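New to this. Explain these tokens.
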Amino acid sequence: MTASANMPLRGELRMDESLARYTSWRVGGAARQVYRPADAADLAEFLAGLPADEPLLWLGLGSNVLIRDGGFPGTVIVTQGRLNDIEVRGTRVYAEAGAACAHVARLAARLGLTGGAFLAGIPGTMGGALAMNAGAFGGETWGKVMSVKTIDRHGQIRQRFPADYEIAYRHVQGPAGEWFLSCELQLVEGDSKAEQAAIRELLDKRAETQPTGQPSGGSTFRNPPGDYAARLIERAGLKGYRIGGAQVSDKHANFVINTGNASAADIEQLIEHMQQTVRDAFGVELVREVHILGVPA
């Protein structure tokens, strides 16, 4: 499927738009332009009209990403509140990239489908979960994926399958120049009440162990093989450590929080300090889950 040359754009375009409002850390400079598409067809039309060399960035709920204070010198596609349709057909769940993972989990559970409760613990959208094989509480996104639809910068939409991707822990590598537009998940019929109870239990556990009420980017680092990033960071004495307005969470050491006045530079410097301290103390190289993008101030 490709875009038509005659369809008028129906989405919302903003120029020189601050990205702080679109990220879970509540920091970040401005983008040259931000587009919030009306639907997939509108997005295809918009992308087809962009210059071939235009830098592109996609944001869902804005977790797992740090936008530097100098902003992003290109176009940002924001799916938050857009491209968020969810449809259940039998035991298959179709979810667009902008659908919140937690909403997918809750709807599936209400309709008597099980196996997707872990999605409630992922603080992002399905597009982001697909891009990094996000997981929580022992489940991983791509373990449930039957197929996906992607879109490229020319507005062409394709259907793809797990075999088209290299998938590992917090890693997904597929055809270059394509972004996830939607996915089809395979769940199983089960006890709706039990699944909803499992989701509530997972969310309660998350609230008890993670700083859910404070601006953060989610988990900062991948867990190294056979260990936990939070354990190493805590053992290194970094819980509560601050640089400017950025702080290692007292609740969970693998979270960096914005205490209210952090800059993106504060957060990036703190992340680098955590890596260096753990490297010096234990000889372990922590690998970021968080993607750092944009230009410095």
